Amino acid sequence: MGHRKKSAPRRGSLAFRPRVRAGDIVPRVRYWGYTDSPKPTLLGFIGFKAGMMHTIVSGENPRSPTFGKPVFRASTVLVCPPIRICGIRLYGESVKGEFALTEVYYDKLPKIYERALPKGYLEKKYDLKVLDNFVENVKRVVAVVGAEPSEAKLPRKKPIILEVEVGGGKSIKDRLEYAKSILGSTVKVRDVFKVGDFVDTIGITKGKGFQGPVKRFGIKRKQHKSRKSVRAVGCLGAWHPAAVTYTVPRAGQMGFHQRTEYNKKILICASTDENTLFNPPGGFKHFGIVKGDYIVIDGNVQGPPKRPIVLRFAVRKKEEKPTPPKIIYTSVTPVTVKSG
């Protein structure tokens, strides 16, 4: 049963194990990267996927046959409402790893944030002077930010709370002073990223539910005269060890996994107002009308429409310097609406 005439590579990468559902719809960021900026800045942002469009840009690689010629690129629109700086958290490091030293929060947060934070959690955490006592032991300065989906015209009322590391600057003190200066204020996406920057997208993929090994791992179907099953795996493994190993393709959860995609270029970073719209006729499918700040990213982004996507500076930086692309055509263009 287990013998085959031709060898073939295994189906399905073991690098993505375990293929289980993500714990939360908001992704967990394990590493924020760094930036060479002389001034301190946030190392990431969060947006909501609106949909896809296509752009035609001028080829930028001088070593490519398409250099200077029109190139068709699929691209993704992300709505990025301003994020609110709710608090500051300091991390230290010991032999056992990183740990939180202290945290301070803004004392006049909007009432809507009571939905996202445990009752009484912010009591006695408003004194900024506490942060100065831990400056010498700080390894990382992190901003606790809140994103309000309602600002992107989404039905969810509860804000999304996540950590975004503060980078850049010359020292930890510079980053801490910067975090203090923006505490309680809102930061726009154009304050963090600019057109031409390379970013990584971190998000939860579209869920597919419980699927068999043919769809989940891409194994080959057996012939129609096969014994009992056609879409099952041909061999569960050797006689000994008398167990099914984890490397054998089996049915189970497919999709709704956290995934990171690297080096996506920002093509457009703009905003709409009362008289300007950036939408296809009828709005983006399953999302609606784009209002406020938005960015357009080269390539596709994981997840369905309305899914929160975390952006960070690219950690696998390319050699070329970020330059604004030369856009020839976009399938969705800003439209001026006549008032009255």
Give the topology.
Elements: E1 41-42, E2 44-58, E3 70-79, E4 83-94, E5 97-105, H1 129-132, E6 140-147, E7 160-167, H2 172-182, E8 186-187, E9 198-204, E10 209-211, H3 213-217, E11 252-254, E12 258-271, E13 276-277, E14 293-298, E15 308-313, E16 327-330, E17 335-336
Antiparallel strand pairs: 1-7, 2-3, 2-15, 2-16, 3-14, 4-5, 4-6, 4-8, 6-7, 9-12, 9-15, 10-11, 12-14, 13-17
CATH-defined topology of the largest domain: Elongation Factor Tu (Ef-tu), domain 3
Indicate the proportion of strand residues.
25-35%
The whole-angstrom Rg is 24 Å
Counting DSSP E segments of at least 2 residues, the number of strands comes to 17
Structural class: mainly beta
Number of helices: 3
Distance between the first and last residues' Cα: 75 Å
Report the average pLDDT across residues. 92
Dominant shape: globular
* CATH architecture term of the largest domain: Beta Barrel
CATH class of the largest domain: Mainly Beta
**How helix-rich are the residues, as a percent range?**
under 10%
Q: CATH H-level name of the largest domain... which superfamily?
A: Translation factors
Largest sheet: 6 strands, antiparallel
